[in-house]
């Protein structure tokens, strides 16, 4: 029996594929390579190139590989850009999730781990985000993830328990668990800073007048290997028929400021720089940090990496890619 990873050629998906293999669960990958890279898929792992908007392809993949569960990671993950591309975002995240659910029902696949997002909470006004906090997404991306959770919930109700599922919500995923795989997003803080440093340019902080100890906004940064491990435990619990919550936050509990990240970047890379200070980005809250208590209880969730280790693993993977 195998687990299908949609988006398994992407940064997060490729780490989940490796974690599945390490746990003795056979993965198969489907990815359209719109943002993923076939080179991220380990040798020997079956790879199907194609879009999950193709229902026949998804169903055929499920049947051909005797899939027992799906880890649904594929999606359009750019919250800021989703404001300019709402229709594309809904197609990639909502319609695609509906199609995956439809194909799963047709192929009698009963287990689903959904890669959701803490963006479903919007801009919370509490120090720590918990799973029961009201959902007020502030972008089409966040809305699409919340709708995805609703679709899964409603399908499970319609199938009277024949679909077992959980959704994992997280914020800023960083670092690398394999020197072959690194974050290639043009919108995430770590790759933006890495590219600036590699080009001999100075990274920038967007605003230093927030209501935080050092004036820069505080976010949840979690290591990609920890994220991958939690997906695997969730899959194992579903397959074993063990109880799971409908959703879990994979949060850091404490958070890190952008200036703390910049200090770690300089410290770990050995490149001494003083970040430029730019204006605030509209709508950026002072602090968003989630608790991970439920996930710690059920999914062996913990933060195993310091900020320096997060930076070091990401930097080493990005530099290794430059040498290829």
Automatic annotation (TrEMBL):
Pathway linked to the protein: Carbohydrate metabolism; galactose metabolism
Keywords: Carbohydrate metabolism, Isomerase, NAD
Entry keyword annotation includes Isomerase: yes
EC number: 5.1.3.2
Ranges where the NAD-dependent epimerase/dehydratase domain occurs: 3-251
Keyword Hydrolase: no
Any Pfam family matching the protein: Epimerase
Molecular function per GO: UDP-glucose 4-epimerase activity
Domain of life of the organism encoding this protein: Bacteria
Catalysed reaction, written as an equation: UDP-alpha-D-glucose = UDP-alpha-D-galactose
Family, as annotated: Belongs to the NAD(P)-dependent epimerase/dehydratase family.
Cited PANTHER family: UDP-ARABINOSE 4-EPIMERASE 1, UDP-GLUCOSE 4-EPIMERASE
Name of the featured protein: UDP-glucose 4-epimerase
